[in-house]
Amino acid sequence: MARPRILVTNDDGFDAPGLAALKTVAAALGEVYVVAPAEPQSYVGHRVTTDRPLALTQTAHNEFHLAGTPADCVRVALTSLFPEIDWVLAGINRGGNLGADLYISGTVAAAREAALLGKPGVAVSQYIRRDLALDWSRSGEIAQGVMEWLFTEPLGVRMYWNVNLPHLENGASAPVVHCDPDNEPLDVRYRREQDIFHYAGSYPGRPRTPGRDVDHCFQGAITVSCLRV
């Protein structure tokens, strides 16, 4: 049986450690193809570029970076470079993409764009605690276990997965929880200095609904949400 052809992208940029970890995961599951942003594109949401050319640079066999957004990368890859891709994986994002983050995240937008173009997609993000060092190889190990499961799960047309990994102590394990995204707003506060506003919200201090993704991930679970375009 042929191994699946997997497109890997992200929003942290082509040289991000999370992308390297996800490439390792993808290599264990199938054939790896990469089109990632040339520069960090965090918080760009589902922005696409239609008003200027997009420069493409090859960095290795079947690997490229593009002067565009994560959604641009998926569009170019699926329509022009690798139209026979079977799956699109986006991440591993540095920081969680939970609840309201879905509307802001370039990582999630890449998986959503895949769904729009008829390909199954998975966005993977790593929630980060400031008091604990992060081991990207451990993040990859956890993500691989989830991917092996998701690759066997049925996924409807125009649907995609959003996965968030908790930040664990060394050696700790985590349950996998299938749950809905939270619909509470982020902690939106600003510190004002005359006409200058500085964002002062706290990601860990955001509101959360019991039983939804923010609450579960903050308590140490791997959250999996099935989303529809």
Report on this model:
With 229 residues, the chain is of the alpha/beta class. It has a single domain (5-228), classed as 3-Layer(aba) Sandwich (Stationary-phase Survival Protein Sure Homolog, Chain: A), CATH 3.40.1210.10. The protein has 5 helices and 11 strands; from the N terminus they run βαβββαβαβαββββαβ. It has helices spanning 17-29, 70-81, 106-116, 136-150, 213-218, and strands at 5-9, 31-37, 56-60, 63-66, 87-94, 121-126, 159-165, 176-178, 190-193, 196-199, 222-228. It has a 9-stranded mixed sheet with strand order 3-4-2-1-5-6-7-11-8, with helices on both faces. A two-stranded antiparallel sheet has the order 9-10. Helix 1 (17-29) links the parallel strand 1 (5-9) and strand 2 (31-37). Helix 1 (17-29) packs parallel to helix 4. The radius of gyration is 17 Å and the shape is globular. It starts with a strand and ends with a strand.
